[in-house]
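wait is this the right file?? whatever heres the structure
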């Protein structure tokens, strides 16, 4: 698909509004995060890549202190009922 759009002033910024047929771009919706690559030829916009975190990534830097291992939890009410 090829189309043209106009950069518009939006407060103190410049915005590129996707309207009309551009609103139906597959896999894009309002609120999506996008990656923008700026080159001498212009802008390239694509949906942000989600990098799933591994268990190692999530636990990196975790210590007994940051994990609050010294805190003892006391269940209350019916929390242990299954």
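ok assuming it is, sequence goes like this
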């Amino acid at each position: 698909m090829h189309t043209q759009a106009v950069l518009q002033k939006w407060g103190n910024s410049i915005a590129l509004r996707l309207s009309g047929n551009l609103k139906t771009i597959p896999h894009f919706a309002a609120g999506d995060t996008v990656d923008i690559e700026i080159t001498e030829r212009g802008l390239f916009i694509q949906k942000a890549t989600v990098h799933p975190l591994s268990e190692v990534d999530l636990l990196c830097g975790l210590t007994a202190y940051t994990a609050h291992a010294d805190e003892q939890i006391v269940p209350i009410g019916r929390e242990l009922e299954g």
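The first helix runs from residue 55 to 59. so i think its the right one actually
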